[in-house]
Amino acid sequence: MTASGNLRVNGERLWRSLMRMAMIGATEKGGNCRLALSDPDREARDLFVSWAREAGCTITIDKMGSIFARRAGSDDTLAPVMMGSHLDTQPTGGRFDGVLGVLSALEVIRTLNDLDYRSERPLEIAMWTNEEGSRFAPAMLASGVFAGEFSLEFGHSRADRDGRSVGAELERIGYLGDEPVGGRDIHAFFEVHIEQGPILEEEEKTIGIVTDAQGVRWYEVTLQGVESHAGPTPMDRRRDALVGAARIVERVNEIGLAHAPLACATVGMMEVHPNSRNVIPGRVFLTIDLRHPDDGVLDAMEAEFRARSDEIAAAAGLDLECEKIFAYAPVAFDPGCIEAVREAAAGLGLGAREIVSGAGHDACYISRVAPSAMIFTPCIGGISHNEAEDIKPEWAAAGADVLLRAVIAKAGA
Ligand code: GLV
Ligand code: MN
Ligand code: MN
Q1: How many domains are there within the chain?
Q2: pLDDT, tens digit, 9 for 90 and up, residues 64-79
Q3: Cβ(84) to ligand 1 under 6 A?
Q4: Exposure of 162 by Cβ count < 10 A (0-12 exposed, 13-18 middle, 19+ buried)?
Q5: Phi, psi angles (nearest 5°) of residue 323
Q6: Is the pTM of this model over 0.90?
Q7: Which of 12, 148, 295, 349 has a CA positioned 20 to 30 A from the CA of residue 263?
Q8: Does one domain contain both 171 and 257?
């Protein structure tokens, strides 16, 4: 069989699996809440593992809780071709972010089983722990440990806002595996993902050939003022941490706009203490997310953000602590893997274009230890990290078809 043959996944089976997985942690507005290492995450993992076992795969779990489902190759001593993504979601997440990449990979293996096709290299599906970084910062934590960006101790010690650690939660849900994290050869890695932006749909293209991903930096800021009574405290005597935070939000937005059209700058999270209507806020915690495809521009954005927030804090009589907790430079994916995606899309006659990822993905870290590329599919209205996130079944099938051919091209007959 050749990769240019009439090779297709079973799109209906893929869609049924996506819809079944979406029942776990389903929200009232039609999305999903499966925060990393929560009970719904455990349930999603259990379902994935049961499906992968049914498909004849061998399961291993590493010390970061990432799951690897392996289908033997005809030469099982060769390094595997790996494909996958994540099953965790944002608190108000959609049904496809991450899930599409994991279940497309499963569909590739199910299709190869149907065809009784054995690749020369083994194939592995990877389900990476805590991609979203919503409950446990930073994002792409387990793929980062796998790629040597973070130590295992760092990974296990990350804690949510209630103080529960990754290590303890992995143990609680029964996914603290015993495999070492990383340190093994991977021949190639492919991740299918929804674009999470509007470009493919607007240009009526079904496949995004992802060449690069933009750089990301995350900061945590704590502003400390003084709590006091909202009535008797005169306006000119206040050290109101929320007023300082509001000004920082405004400046961060301006920094994003000042570096248009490619920059993004977001305050996504804020905690106000004591959060009582008649107490002047004494302390505010907020998070900042800066993105740009050029590291030099990110340096400039960071310098502006630090200078402006220091000025704001000084003017409002606040103490400011700012910590950069996560950063990765823009990523260039592997030319050979990109070519495999391009050829697969062309062989299927699918409309495709090159695209730069705005979001972070596990492939960004895996690209440091294995030749990697990504396959984007459109999403309706470019909406993602939103319960309304939606795609068409034919887009999902097209992404999995491209994955199938790219993987076979790399895994050999
Ligand atoms: C991951 O979803 C990110 O881009 O923050
Ligand atoms: Mn994702
Ligand atoms: Mn996401």
Answers
A1: 2
A2: 999 999 999 999 999 9
A3: no
A4: exposed
A5: -125, 130
A6: yes
A7: 148
A8: no
